[in-house]
Amino acid sequence: MEDVIKIEGKHKLKGTVRIGGSKNATVALIPAAILANGPVTICDVPDISDVKSLSVLLDFLGVAVDIRSSDTIVIDPQDMVNRPLTHDAVNKLRASYYFMGALLGKYGHVEILMPGGCYLGPRPIDLHLKGFEALGAEVKYEHGSYVLDAKELVGTEIFLDIASVGATINIMMAAVYAKGRTTIENAAKEPEIIDVATLLNKMGANIRGAGTNVIIIDGVEKLSGCFHEIIPDRIEAATYIVMAAAAAEDVVVENIIPHHLEALLSKLKEIGVEMEVDVDSVRVKGTSKLIGTDIKTLPYPGFATDIQQPLTALLTQAQGHSMVTETIYIERFKHCYELNKMGANINVMQASSFIEGPTPLSGTEVCATDLRCGACLVIAGLLADGVTTIHDIYHIERGYEHIIEKLQAIGANIWKETVA
Ligand SMILES: CC(=O)N[C@H]1[C@@H](OP(=O)(O)OP(=O)(O)OC[C@H]2O[C@@H](n3ccc(=O)[nH]c3=O)[C@H](O)[C@@H]2O)O[C@H](CO)[C@@H](O)[C@@H]1O
Ligand SMILES: C=C(OP(=O)(O)O)C(=O)O
């Protein structure tokens, strides 16, 4: 038996969608909370399976997690035990790697399985490990687990060969208790990094420069509990804005930070999507004609790799050629083969997809090979003639809270079914 999502396309969307807290911030904030010596309250936590997997891991470590309301949790690590993280839940998401930085920072020792997450081509963690080594940790890989040990963590200068989001956050967490000053150069600048630094600073850490490419962390001796509200999910927001561009009569996407979406909004304008951008919302009315364009994914503030897959569904409806080039994950194109099953005309060569449009799409059986491929297929399903059936929806559930309910509320004909 398997749960699938079914969508009957061609229904116009009308109404308001509220965006939840950022997945990529949340999955770092939760492990970061264990660095405190008191309860940390986090609100606007998205209801996604990645959060459930992290809660299982917290429970495994003896960390108390109190669910205060539908989106507020209190994490109390005061009775925590630093057990080897050999639980299956580690493999369910990428961000389990943040327990490396957090546990190393707090205890000077961590044992953890390889992280999971979407397969987007190779996703090494060598930069995280080099950072931990530079801080004084010994890194071993034994019996399928990473084992990290440090008698003492001492601040140092770390230059990242690639501005990696995960390595930047992980090193920041490992360094909060280190002796002296750690400087991360060529740090990633994604908004989620600022959010994690904000939480750590509220706990009592001394981190400056998050959001720029040089982050300075002065080690402290104690971190306490605090209250934190997560930033809105810019990738969920982008997905609904693209959905609206594909199928809206009149849709408002609210609880967003438009500044985090500038690369997408300027591309959408270029291809002909009419939008009204307000302080914390974007309104999209029906779009008559779309024009093909070229996109290159880049680290923030460039065009996010997580958005190229959803946008590709829209580009199948644009007049002429479009080209999407990946510079972050050069194999992140499995969604193109699924779109082709629905009638798209996309060729993938090396690190680019070449889209010829417009092509009518028709509903068929497709597979969400990864999270954003799933989002892309939901958009394609809204555009398609007939019913689209999406398999492997556990990927979608990793990152989109209540996607069926949110879309039903604005007029989409989408539902979940259990099939043999
Ligand atoms: C949980 C989370 O926040 N996931 C996001 C995070 O993933 P993640 O943090 O894993 O992505 P990174 O920013 O680390 O990856 C960027 C590039 O650096 C490479 N790299 C990274 C680390 C390393 O040690 N060695 C190395 O070579 C990667 O293979 C990739 O080509 O940022 C990606 C890039 O914006 C997003 O697509 C993911 O949604
Ligand atoms: C790739 C993604 O997530 P993760 O890094 O958690 O696999 C994503 O959010 O698009």
List the helices and strands and how they pair.
Blueprint: E1 2-8, E2 13-18, H1 23-33, E3 40-43, H2 49-60, E4 64-69, E5 72-76, H3 98-107, E6 109-113, H4 126-134, E7 138-142, E8 145-149, E9 157-159, H5 165-175, E10 181-185, H6 191-203, E11 206-208, E12 214-218, E13 227-229, H7 234-247, E14 248-254, H8 262-271, E15 275-277, E16 281-285, E17 294-296, H9 305-315, E18 320-325, H10 334-341, E19 345-349, E20 352-357, E21 365-367, H11 371-383, E22 387-391, H12 394-397, H13 403-409, E23 413-419
Parallel strand pairs: 2-14, 3-13, 9-10, 17-18, 21-22
Antiparallel strand pairs: 1-22, 1-23, 3-5, 4-5, 6-8, 7-8, 10-12, 11-12, 14-16, 15-16, 18-20, 19-20
Helix pairs in contact: 1-2, 1-3, 1-6, 3-5, 4-5, 5-6, 7-9, 7-11, 9-11, 10-11
This protein binds uridine-diphosphate-N-acetylglucosamine and phosphoenolpyruvate.
The site of phosphoenolpyruvate has 11 residues, from helix 11.
Describe it:
This is UDP-N-acetylglucosamine 1-carboxyvinyltransferase. Cell wall formation. Adds enolpyruvyl to UDP-N-acetylglucosamine. The modification 2-(S-cysteinyl)pyruvic acid O-phosphothioketal is found at residue 118. The protein is of the alpha+beta class. It has two domains: 2-20 and 232-419, UDP-n-acetylglucosamine1-carboxyvinyl-transferase, Chain, CATH 3.65.10.10; 23-229, UDP-n-acetylglucosamine1-carboxyvinyl-transferase, Chain (Alpha-beta prism), CATH 3.65.10. It has 13 helices and 23 strands. The chain has helices at 23-33, 49-60, 98-107, 126-134, 165-175, 191-203, 234-247, 262-271, 305-315, 334-341, 371-383, 394-397, 403-409, and strands spanning 2-8, 13-18, 40-43, 64-69, 72-76, 109-113, 138-142, 145-149, 157-159, 181-185, 206-208, 214-218, 227-229, 248-254, 275-277, 281-285, 294-296, 320-325, 345-349, 352-357, 365-367, 387-391, 413-419. Strands 21-22-1-23 form a four-stranded mixed sheet. The chain has a four-stranded mixed sheet with strand order 2-14-16-15. A four-stranded mixed sheet has the order 4-5-3-13, covered by helices on one side. Strand 7 (138-142) and strand 8 form a beta hairpin. Helix 10 runs parallel beside helix 11. The mean pLDDT is 97. Uridine-diphosphate-N-acetylglucosamine (UD1) is lined by residues 24, 27, 94-95, 123-128, 162, 164-167, 188, 305-306, 328-329. Uridine-diphosphate-N-acetylglucosamine binds at residues 24, 27, 94-95, 123-128, 162, 164-167, 188, 305-306, 328-329.
